[in-house]
Amino acid sequence: MFFQLIIAIILGITIGVLFPDLGTQLKPLGDGFIRLIKMIIAPLIFLVIVTGIAHMGDVKAVGRVGVKALAYFLVASTFALIFGLVVGNLMAPGAGLNIDPGTLSEAAVDAKTGGAKAPDAATFVLGIIPASVVDAFAQNALLQVLVFAVFVGSAVIVIGREKVAPVMNFFDAFLTIIYTIMGWVMKLAPIGAFGAMAFVIGQYGVATLGTYAKLIVACYAAALVFIGLLSVVLWLVARVSLWSFLKYTRAEFGLALGTASTESVLPRMMTKLTEAGCSRAVTGLVMPTGYSFNLDGAAIYLSISLLFLAQAFGVQLDLGQQIAALGVLLLTSKGMAGVPGSSFLALSATAAALGIFPVAGVALLLGADRIMDSMRVTVNLLGNCVATFVIAAWEGQLDRTQLRRALGGTESTEPAPLTAS
Q1: How far apart are CA 289 and CA 296, in angstroms?
Q2: Closest alpha carbon to 130 in 115, 150, 110
Q3: C-alpha angle 206/209/212, rounded to 5°?
Q4: pLDDT digits (tens, 9 = 90+) for 260-315
Q5: What angle do CA 236, 242, 243 make, to 5 degrees?
Q6: What DSSP letter does each residue of 252-269 carry, written as one string?
Q7: Residue 24 half-sphere exposure toward CB, CA atoms < 13 A
Q8: Per-residue pLDDT tens over the stretch 318-366
Q9: Model-level pTM?
């Protein structure tokens, strides 16, 4: 699969460069594959969480995992935002552009976001609670599906697994069916990656790389350093080698890069994590929640882009303004997964709240935004995988025998130094 994906991506880039019109027309191949993946995401998450919690057998443990995951996400995403600000200050990607605000229009940003607005705190919290279970599944509202699954799994524990054995047997059998379908869909991954990459290059062209060279270099350099920091956390807490894990999941990361979508690999990555020793309950709770609360790659991009835009308009932000911007970004960046133009919404909301630069200035990022997808997707996905290992290790729900078997026996046999009950 990995080599098929590499060949597909190279072919997609080639088609996009040599025949851009044809590349643009291949977009349905990528979109069709993403739709097939979305078809199974909601039932997969529901079944994994319900069966995982039922096997865990402790409602208090479920709450503890959730609290630890949210605490970890808050710390990780805050650090990612701060790290992005540091890189943006050091590299100053927008310095010297001297953009005239009068030449920009908000219409382009509105077209990208569909005129949507960043939700306030109350709207976001209420949006997590499903008004209808059927609608949550129909809309692929992953957080709503997760909330319902936690209730169902907790109810199974309270009632007793024996009393609901027929239902749980059905869930286990249905999960096997979903895994089988997932295997069929994944065989089409190279075709999806080919179509998605051909469209990106054909639509935006390689010339964009030169126009936004400094911004692109700043973001990707920051991503590489941040990945290095994640590798340290992964080893210190869970005693897992990042390199071994990347070799183990190279096909999934290749697909995520090719399709520029973390959703395309969520089902398969959850399976890989459970096969690598993380308990089903921890994986089911942490990975879907992280898609809204732990977007480390997006956080780095937002911080650097904010400074890029301020510098492009000749605005020098002092420490107080940057701290204020950090607070606003921390709020506006949460719960934006799956929202069209989410990064533009977050930056527009921050610009409007602080008055740092005209909201229309966000349109400057339209050309570079799609190129940043590879960076955001990689760091977002890796950050959530690391979070899953960390929480599993803290909870004592990381099977090290299974971990060594999956990753080729290169992991430490010693328990992680940081444990929590």
Answers
A1: 13
A2: 150
A3: 150
A4: 777 778 888 989 999 999 988 899 888 888 887 888 888 898 889 888 888 887 77
A5: 140
A6: HHHHHHHHT-SGGGHHHH
A7: 7
A8: 888 888 888 877 776 665 555 555 677 777 777 777 777 777 777 777 7
A9: 0.78
